[in-house]
Design brief:
This protein has two domains: 326 residues, Up-down Bundle (Outer membrane efflux proteins (OEP)), CATH 1.20.1600.10; 67 residues, Outer membrane efflux proteins (OEP) (Single Sheet). The strands form two sheets. The chain has a four-stranded antiparallel sheet with strand order 2-3-5-6, with no helix packed on it. Strands 1-4 form a two-stranded parallel ribbon. It is built from ten helices and six strands; from the N terminus they run αβααββααβααββααα. Strand 5 and strand 6 form a beta hairpin. By secondary structure, the protein is an alpha+beta fold.
Length: 428
């Protein structure tokens, strides 16, 4: 058993030595700003805004005119042999869009641009909520490492005390075996929490746009619990949530697309004007043309039917999104409320009581007033409640970042970083 304990201790020590000294320390605000500046997914979303802006500009353009060059009466017979009576016409033709096609087409593209813009804000809100939660995960994992160290110290201390009592024939050998198992479990737990820390740190590094997180550390006070947002204020904020705004723009775009489909069924005339030269006497004359398709077969009826169905689909999707967002916000707020109350109970009551119970059990065991099982039970209880407290911290912040995401709490930060980016580009 002693050899096994020594082997695990050396193994955990080697794993611990692979964690390098952390050089880059960020607080929450700095990490959120860095995520907005460096995250590749968010950069891709911003690029889509530029692409949509280009599509909007393209949609507003008129059709290009056509140049016409026509040669008639070439190489005929009789009087039209050779080029004697050749006629050359040089002109220009322009399609005239009727039924407001260009205006409606521009509207469709403009609504598409607004949808992409709102979706970029959604992407930023999602990124910031994930970043804040990754920060909390990393901070909690760091706390777990400290707790695991303390547990290992307590388990080692208990093992040494029990060993002395067993050697003095004051306790049975079974107590030494149990304390040895407790120490081994503490060493294994430390290994696990170090793995959790590395995973959380790498996730945060990915969100920050870093290749790895070996030089990354965060600075946050977990004892400073977040404040519970007013429920009515959250509901009011949802009215301007970009998730819902994008759905409203999608509904407008679908209706404009239906109008465009109907307008496309109206034929567009093409008018032309030109100059014709006659080779036989070098006379010239103006020519004018007018042409338009006859809507006998294709009146765009299939596209109109598809656009009508799309309006119904988008309306249903918008309603489903609205219900989902309001329900998610309600559930997140209720979870936030419950977890905040539970976490305060752990901080103010449960953990202090467990610490006091362990101290009393430790002191009483040394004096012979308590059995070993009392000491072991107090030690395990303290470890359990401390771990449960950290679990509640994670659940609390999971609800918190969900509310922030839905209610747009990060919007001022997004606007600030965007404004600074624009000013920096102007100064370049």
């Amino acid at each position: 058993m002693i050899k096994k304990t020594l082997f695990i201790s050396i193994f955990v020590l080697l794993l611990s030595s692979t964690i390098p000294c952390l050089a880059q320390t960020l607080d929450k605000q700095a990490a959120l700003k860095q995520a907005l500046q460096n995250n590749p997914s968010y950069k891709a979303a911003l690029s889509e805004i530029q692409a949509a802006s280009g599509q909007r500009s393209q949609a507003s353009l008129r059709p290009n005119p056509n140049t016409v060059f026509e040669v008639e009466n070439i190489g005929g017979s009789g009087e039209r042999e050779g080029f004697e009576r050749t006629e050359i016409t040089l002109g220009i033709e322009q399609k005239i869009e009727l039924a407001g096609k260009r205006r409606i087409r521009t509207e469709v593209a403009d609504f598409g641009y607004k949808i992409i813009r709102e979706e970029a804000i959604v992407e930023a809100l999602k990124l910031l909520s994930e970043t804040e939660y990754a920060i909390i995960r990393m901070a909690v994992a760091k706390e777990r490492i400290e707790l695991a160290d303390k547990r290992l110290q307590l388990a080692t201390q208990t093992y040494n005390i029990v060993k002395k009592r067993v050697n003095a024939a004051a306790s049975p050998d079974m107590e030494l075996a149990k304390s040895d198992i407790e120490k081994i479990e503490a060493e294994i737990e430390k290994h696990h929490v170090e793995e959790e820390y590395n995973i959380a740190r790498n996730d945060l590094a990915r969100l920050l746009g870093l290749d790895d997180g070996n030089d990354l550390d965060i600075k946050i006070d977990l004892s400073a619990l977040p404040k519970l947002a007013d429920y009515q204020a959250v509901l009011i904020a949802l009215n301007s949530a970009p998730q819902l705004r994008s759905q409203e723009f999608a509904k407008m775009k679908a209706r404009s697309a239906l109008d465009l489909a109907k307008a496309t069924g109206v034929p567009d005339p093409t008018v032309g004007v030109g100059v014709r030269q006659f080779f036989d006497n070098d006379d010239t004359a103006l020519v004018a043309t007018l042409s338009f398709p006859l809507p006998l077969f294709d009146r765009n009826q299939g596209a109109i039917k598809s656009a009508q169905a799309n309006v119904v689909r988008v309306d249903a999707q918008a309603r489903a999104t609205e219900l989902s967002i309001y329900q998610s916000a309600k559930q997140a707020w209720e979870l936030f409320y419950a977890e905040l109350d539970i976490t305060r109970h752990y901080m103010d009551e449960i953990i202090p009581i467990a610490k006091k119970a362990y101290d009393q059990a430790d002191k009483g065991y040394n004096l012979g007033a308590f059995e070993f099982l009392d000491l072991l039970d107090a030690q395990r209880t303290l470890n359990r409640v401390q771990s449960e407290y950290l679990d509640n911290i994670l659940e609390l912040y999971e609800a918190k970042v969900q509310i922030d995401y839905l209610a747009g709490t990060y919007k001022p930060l997004i606007q600030e970083v965007s404004q600074n980016t624009v000013e920096d580009k102007k100064n370049e």
